[in-house]
Specification:
Blueprint (H helix, E strand, L loop, with lengths): L9 E7 L7 H12 L3 E7 L5 H9 L4 E6 L4 H7 L2 E2 L1 H6 L4 E5 L2 E5 L2 H12 L8 E5 L3 H13 L3 E6 L2 H11 L3 E5 L3 H5 L4 E4 L23 E4 L8 H8 L3 E3 L2 H7 L1 H8 L7 H9 L2
Helix pairs in contact: 5-6, 5-10
The protein binds 2'-monophosphoadenosine-5'-diphosphate.
2'-monophosphoadenosine-5'-diphosphate binds next to helix 6.
Length: about 280
């Protein structure tokens, strides 16, 4: 007799507060359809005060196989997970959770998404020893960890509030250097990789001029902001003759490990998926 559990619809979620702007449902529903999986992916708005109860219900078996967690729940989800993996423990924040035999596992796939996007868009981007990271917030942490794990030997974090850059240097150790914004030109000299992790330029906001000419020739410039797709920072870098990689791919690639955990298939990022998200922007 067939195991009735095999025929149950698997359901995953994305939760945040607010959640209505999340593109994750579009991504995962595209992959569910692509694989012909009888499953669903739901956006759930959960207020911070209700998040503990939400996780308790999830662990007690409310039908979800796991999900994505976004702002403002990433740190709470890390604290409430039973088994955060090594990456999650280093960052203290997670974006992906999944249940295995009633145990809640958790990881942070932002760094995986960041690196996979670069590898897919511009193989060889990592053939440099010196990288510049603009910004020192939550997103910057995942990026620095990923660059360090990739073996970039000098990671220069430049931030408006230099104390936050110093905190990251203290957290990540030897390969990471902290600088104030005024040092941007100086530390860019000879770098082969530049990433913006700040909200500068998001939704059309003002961005100060950046002189990329100190980067080495062939340097790659990327931005984790993806609305607009061509951010002011990417446009500036292109005008100055540098290769750029936009941030949309990071969003798409960070979704891959979760889908595989919940639904058991390895999804890929292709132009159809990219177009689907761009059409929704
Ligand atoms: P996230 O979790 O998305 O990274 P965050 O923790 O609020 O968000 O960090 C935002 C980053 O953008 C910080 O590096 C912030 O600089 P400060 O640490 O000095 O606040 C940076 N940022 C935001 N607006 C900026 C601006 N107008 N000029 C320069 N940096 C800015």
């Amino acid at each position: 007799m067939a195991d009735s559990r095999e025929t149950l619809t698997k359901t995953a979620f994305v939760t945040g507060y607010p959640i209505k702007h999340s593109r994750s449902p579009l991504i995962h529903r595209h992959w569910l359809e692509r694989f012909g999986i009888v499953g669903s992916y739901q956006a759930l708005e959960v207020a911070p005060d209700d998040f503990g109860a939400f996780i308790a219900e999830l662990k007690s078996g409310n039908g979800f196989v796991g999900g994505n967690v976004t702002i403002p729940h990433k740190e709470s989800a890390y604290r409430l997970a039973d088994r955060p993996d090594e990456i999650a423990q280093e960052l203290g924040a997670v974006n992906t959770v999944w249940l295995e035999n009633g145990v809640l596992h958790a990881s942070n796939t932002d760094g995986f998404g960041f690196i996979s996007n670069l590898d897919a868009s511009h193989p060889g981007w990592d053939k440099t020893s010196r990288a510049v990271v603009l910004g020192a917030g939550g997103a910057s942490r995942a990026v620095i960890q990923a660059l360090r794990d990739r073996g970039i030997s000098e990671i220069h974090v430049v931030n408006r509030t230099v104390e936050r850059a110093k905190e990251l240097r203290d957290r990540f150790g030897a390969q990471v250097y902290a600088h104030a914004l005024q040092a941007l030109d100086e530390v860019s000299t000879g770098a082969g990789f530049f990433v913006n992790t700040t909200s500068l330029g998001m939704e059309g906001g003002e961005v100060p001029d950046i002189d990329f000419s100190r980067l080495c020739s062939g340097a790659v410039v990327t931005d984790i902001v993806y609305v607009p797709l061509k951010t002011p920072i990417l446009k500036m870098a292109e005008r100055q003759g540098y290769t750029t990689v936009d941030g949309l791919g990071m969003l798409l690639h960070q979704a891959r490990p979760g889908f595989e955990k919940w639904f058991g298939q390895k999804p890929t990022v292709d132009d159809t998926l990219r177009s689907l998200i761009i059409a929704d922007m």
